[in-house]
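Kindly draft a sequence, keeping tokens residue-aligned:
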Amino acid sequence: MEQHSPSIRAQAVALMRQGVPNRTVAARLNVPRGTVGWWRSEDRKLRGETYEKPTDCPHCTGIEFDRVAYAYLLGLYLGDGHIVSRHKQHHLSVFCNATQTGLIAAAEDAMRKVMPLPSVRQRYTPGCIEVKSYSKHWLCLFPQHGPGKKHDRRIALEPWQQDIVDAHPWEFIRGLIHSDGCRTTNWTTRLIAGERKRYEYPRYFFTNTSDDILRLFTDTLDQVGIEWRQANSSNISIARRASVALMDTHVGPKY
């Protein structure tokens, strides 16, 4: 590390104690930001101060947050999201099809609305984009996090989460469909006036291997009056015309 005079270091520490950001101190005194960061760390140790990164976690601070965005983000997380939590690495991830730019933007927007302070980034892999938000406080907002896969452990909403879902059921449904669901067009044939004709009809599917998550989905469908049936052990189908029309109004296909 380049040596700097004690007076420069003293100036830097004085500025930082006034709340001036590291980057501003570094630019003003023409000192590398890494050096300024080290000086700040040493000054904290000298004063016995423990650094806590600023947070706008609603659970820890009690501040109001965007509950509509949270209901959607909760659906995304339960469907196809996960939290990485280990030493010095904590982030919420939602995986999106790279061609579905609307979904990618919606996931990123929801993360920023729920907690604006944490950084949000995108990581590109072949055919997939991972939207990531870095903060250990996502653990506070998604207590369903735990070791292993979600379908291998019990998934139940906390009372405060259920209150949000009850208040904003369509956003929760939309998040689940956008993560682990789809809108498709099925077809069959019908005999009309002695002639067999092709008949097409739209349908929504939601697929998940967790019985608990399937139940959360169907309970919320019941709340908004959607008729559904369980196509198999991991698949919920919505095909009734009126229900599909209602889903189209509030959810729509992923894009």
Notes: The chain is about 45% helix and 25% strand. The radius of gyration is 25 Å. The first strand starts at residue 81 and ends at 86. The mean pLDDT is 91.
